[in-house]
Design goal:
12% strand, disordered N terminus
Length: 706
């Protein structure tokens, strides 16, 4: 039985209240919402001034609804309840089948269509100074409350509660994020809970951790390195925590390809297609029992209705033990037959199995042979205009299909959000058009350097694309991002993201992919570095200006918040944005400083033969070398950024894997520290002999051609 919170709270009238809040004189329209995801229907809006006092949250004492109320109170910094008349504004949570919910819907001429039932909600004005969130389910009420969090604007005495009239529900029923835990970053539990809360706040309902060898299986303990695997107890804690936020956790364990971190061990190598390879051999009698043991252990701690078997990029298949079988039957048949056998083997776990759709899509005529209760997840990460070819082979075969775009973060100093928006927006649009039931947005950490807090722009864009009816507007999303995610009304964070996109486009315009990590680590004096320099040289000034504007805009947004005595939301992502910008700026400085050092040395050589120029030669050599010289500028791009990177990593992740990345910082710094010492010796030689060695002997490449 549902119990009302109190007779006093129930008696608050719909109109004519005596609350202290006063309606704002400002004219507000639905265009002022700027919430993420954008709401489906908004018909009118007003604003209520709170006078800087608390916004009350009223809710029935239903267990699930009370959690939603507490979550909202925490966000609004509100207490559990107030005597009538002490709130400046209030938010009421109400079920649509209750008398008050029915009355509010009738008063506002609104109804719940069948499409709205599961997760949809309505927001309506409730008297002069409040609003009500109405839903038919606990999930719908929760999502309505998440929208309310974004309706509070301003700070202090200027705080306002926006009061729109809204009907809202998702375009796709399944809205998930796949998070790569097997290529370096392995989140700590504090970050995971923050990740769950944030995903839920922007209306994701699925979280899928990606495992290759990073779950602590009792069946294969050798492959799970100490400190580098999630334990069953941690998994249970995550599942229980996520359930409160209406998120199902779907474990993905690779069960065909991407298993080198298991098969490299001698105990398991015999199960591989090739020796110490990455792909299981379908015909080996030990492969299916191994897969069964993994998913049985997962089922004990992840009780949801789904499991993800991976099975993508099986590039070694047919190159080893199954060569003859593939030659006789074809790659597609061998692959799809093994997927069906995995399905049958895991039947006792009573899970619907997701699988990556990249291999199967190349054999569309064989896709109908797969069990019809499997869920195809075709993936593609480029910004293409059309994704029909990735989707239709599965929907045509009668398989439920979820599309899998990506945030374009892998192996990058900062995600390429321009590419991500083109990929996510178009892929999810086509998924909606062609009958896909879900989206599984993806985060990958291919080179092990990823900082998740850099990914939120693409993650939120994916959540918005899956919730909103297609197409999603890039410009509208960007214009809402800073306010919705960081509580930044100045627009500075929106502009910072635009500058970061412009930096990526500058690199692409120079013939480079984007802000790849490899640009940060490459030695500009090496032969490969000289090849990169030839491409990047025309874009260096523009690249640096964009990156430095990012840093400036973030600082200005923070200063504005401090001046208004308000806290910016999700500050970790702002730190990560600045870190990405500083690394990109360091890349530009590195190539500029390298070119300048080469040019300065060439000039010094041209002047060295005339004694009257020796003072100038010394100045030129000093500009290249000792304190504050070009070589030390490059060194500082590693030594000064290293602690920022370490801090960001440890805020999100366990220490596991971090030494691999720190060694790169150390090695790069030592290279330039060593060059600085060598330059000191070159200057000493100049003092004693007044001769300069050739550029190659001085450790410098030849000057670039003009």
């Amino acid at each position: 039985m549902r119990i009302r919170l109190s007779l006093v709270l129930l008696s608050i009238p719909l109109i004519g209240t005596s609350l202290a809040a006063q309606a704002s004189n400002q004219t507000m329209t639905c265009a002022d919402l700027h919430v993420i995801p954008a709401v489906r229907e908004c018909n009118s809006m007003k604003a209520v001034r709170t006078g800087g006092r608390q916004i009350g949250v009223l809710a029935p004492r239903d267990k699930e609804d009370e959690f939603t109320a507490d979550d909202l109170r925490s966000a609004l910094k509100s207490e559990a309840a107030h005597p009538r008349g002490t709130e400046d504004a209030f938010v009421r949570l109400e079920r649509a089948d209750e008398p008050l919910g029915k009355e509010l819907l009738k008063h506002n001429h609104l109804a719940f269509d069948p499409a709205i039932h599961d997760e949809g909600y309505v927001i309506v004005p409730d008297g002069e100074h409040g609003l009500s969130v109405i839903a038919e389910t606990a999930t719908g009420l929760f999502y309505g409350a998440q929208t309310v969090k974004q309706l509070v604007r301003g700070s202090g005495k200027d705080t306002e509660l926006l009061v729109p009239t809204i009907r809202d529900w998702p375009a796709l029923p399944h809205r998930g994020l796949s998070d790569d835990w097997s290529r370096g970053p392995l989140p700590n539990m504090d970050f995971l809970k923050r990740e769950i809360r944030t995903l839920a706040a922007f209306k994701y309902n699925i979280f899928s951790p990606y495992f290759e060898n990073t779950f602590a299986y009792t069946s294969t303990p050798v492959a799970a390195f100490p400190g580098g695997a999630m334990t069953p107890d941690e998994a249970r804690e995550l599942v229980a925590y996520a359930a409160q936020y209406h998120i199902i956790v779907i474990p993905e364990q690779e069960s065909f390809g991407h298993l080198h971190n298991v098969l490299k061990y001698e105990l398991y190598s015999p199960l591989g297609e090739t020796t110490h390879g990455a792909v299981l051999a379908p015909g080996d009698p030990g492969t299916l029992p191994l897969i069964a043991s993994w998913f049985h252990e997962l089922a004990q701690v992840f009780p949801g209705p789904y499991a993800h078997i991976g099975a993508d990029e099986t590039s070694d298949l047919g190159l080893g033990r199954t060569r003859a079988e593939v030659q006789q039957q074809g790659l597609g048949k061998v692959y799809l037959d093994f997927l069906s056998r995995i399905h049958d083997t895991l039947a006792p776990e009573h899970k619907r199995l997701l699988f990556w759709g990249d291999i199967a899509v190349s054999s569309p005529d064989l896709v109908p042979t797969l069990p019809k209760d499997m869920i195809a997840v075709p993936w593609e990460y480029d910004a293409k205009p059309d994704f029909t070819g990735q989707i239709v082979p599965f929907t045509k075969a009668g398989l439920e299909t979820w599309v899998a775009p990506g945030v374009n973060n892998w192996s990058r100093m900062y995600p390429n959000n321009n590419e991500a928006m083109g990929n996510i927006g178009n892929f999810v649009r086509d998924g909606q058009r062609l009958g896909a039931k879900g989206m599984l947005n993806t985060v990958w950490n291919d080179d092990g350097e990823g900082i998740f807090d850099m990914n939120w722009f693409g993650v939120l864009f994916g959540g918005a694309a899956a919730w909103q009816p297609a197409p999603i507007s890039d410009d509208a999303f960007i214009a809402s991002y800073g306010l919705a995610f960081h509580d930044d009304p100045t627009g500075k964070i929106d502009d910072a993201q635009k500058e970061m996109i412009a930096a990526q486009l500058a690199l692409k315009g120079a013939g480079l992919e984007d802000a790849e990590d490899s640009l940060y680590w490459v030695d500009p004096f090496s032969p490969h570095g000289q090849q990169v320099a030839t491409k990047i040289r025309p874009a260096l000034s523009e690249l640096r200006l964009h990156a430095e504007r990012v840093i400036t805009l973030v600082d200005q947004a923070r200063a504005a918040a401090a001046a208004d005595h308000r806290e910016m939301a999700n500050p970790e992502a702002l730190d990560a944005l600045e870190l990405g910008a500083r690394r990109i700026d360091a890349v530009g400085l590195k190539f500029q400083a390298a070119d300048e050092a080469v040019s300065l040395y060439a000039r010094a050589q041209s002047l060295a033969g005339d004694q009257k120029n020796w003072n100038e030669v010394e100045d030129l050599l000093g500009t290249i070398g000792p304190n504050n010289g070009k070589l030390h500028d490059i060194r500082d791009g590693y030594t000064l950024i290293e602690p920022l990177y370490r801090q960001a990593w440890l805020r999100d992740n366990r220490p596991y894997w971090l030494p691999n990345n720190m060694e790169q910082f150390g090695r790069a710094a030592q290279l330039w520290i060593g060059r600085g010492y060598a330059w000191d010796r070159l200057i000493e030689r100049w003092w004693s002999t007044h001769t300069l060695p050739p550029a190659a002997e001085a450790g410098l490449p030849a000057p670039p051609a003009k």
